[in-house]
Amino acid sequence: MRRKALCIAHLYPDLLNLYADRGNIAVLQRRLEWRGYEVEVVRVTHSETPQFSRYHLVLLGGGSDREQAIVAEKLRACAPEFRSAVQDGLPVLAICGGYQLLGEYYQLPSGEKVPGLGLVDMVTEARPDAPRLIGNIAVWSEEVGVIVGFENHGGRTRHGHRPLGRVLHGHGNDGVSGQEGLRHLNIWGTYVHGPLLPKNPALADAVLRDALGYAHLPEQLEPLNDRLEQEARTAFVSLRMEDVAPMLRTEAELR
Ligand SMILES: NC(=O)CC[C@H](N)C(=O)O
């Protein structure tokens, strides 16, 4: 028997779509369908208005400065509805450019500050004199273990919340604090692209549990066979981030 329908909104996929962020939607959808849920994916393009009361999970991907400035304006227009849904527990997965827009402002390399949604106590500043933060990244999260992926951002982010995790390899929020991403309410903010969820199934399930809870459904998810995903993670880490390999082994032992 099919279980109840969950609705996932992909906000502005026509503007925020760097590094195959769409793959994250495919993972969320399939991992729910494999557990017997019906899933509705709503693509909200820049000419449409989001209806936050309909969604159980919202994804915001990454984008260039130009696209981010357009999206910031769109988001500010619906900020009160978005903010109240998030305060009520609406889960949000926000990646790189989308993550930066959750804060007070995102500063462009010209110095101009693009106002964000103000959903979280966070600012992102430009460092035109310093290199972009680019490369493979691994993060240790108490909630989901090792998160692996790729980052590419000029902005340096500081916030007053819990980070998603601790940088094991790479740069993270600002390249110096050792912090990566943000956790607050049911918000998952991160600089990890790659796409994020195909490489990190434990993180995908953690986000889905928030969505199920928000939809007043049981939060238990039957385990799936993630052998291929785990092998890909191990291969990726041993090829590109040898220093992280012991951490991945620790994680495997803990599970
Ligand atoms: N990868 C991205 O989403 C880029 C975000 C932003 N434009 C920056 O460079 O900081």
Describe this structure in words.
- This protein is of the alpha/beta class and 255 residues long.
- It has one domain: Rossmann fold (3-Layer(aba) Sandwich), CATH 3.40.50.880.
- It is 31% helix and 28% strand.
- The protein contains eight helices and 14 strands.
- The strands form three sheets. A six-stranded mixed sheet has the order 2-1-3-4-14-13. Strands 6-5-7-10 form a four-stranded mixed sheet, with helices on one face. A four-stranded antiparallel sheet has the order 9-8-11-12.
- α1 packs across α6 (201-214).
- The radius of gyration is 17 Å and the shape is globular.
- The model has no long low-confidence stretch (mean pLDDT 93).
- Glutamine is lined by residues 18, 62-65, 68, 96-97, 152-155.
- The active site is at residues 96, 193.
- This is Lipid II isoglutaminyl synthase (glutamine-hydrolyzing) subunit GatD.
- Belongs to the CobB/CobQ family. GatD subfamily.
What are the SSEs and their pairings?
Elements: E1 3-11, H1 22-33, E2 37-44, E3 57-60, H2 65-77, H3 79-87, E4 92-95, H4 97-100, E5 105-107, E6 113-115, E7 122-125, E8 133-141, E9 145-153, E10 156-159, E11 165-169, E12 179-180, E13 182-184, E14 187-190, H5 196-199, H6 201-214, H7 227-240, H8 245-254
Parallel strand pairs: 1-2, 1-3, 3-4, 4-14, 5-7
Antiparallel strand pairs: 5-6, 7-10, 8-9, 8-11, 11-12, 13-14
Helix pairs in contact: 1-6
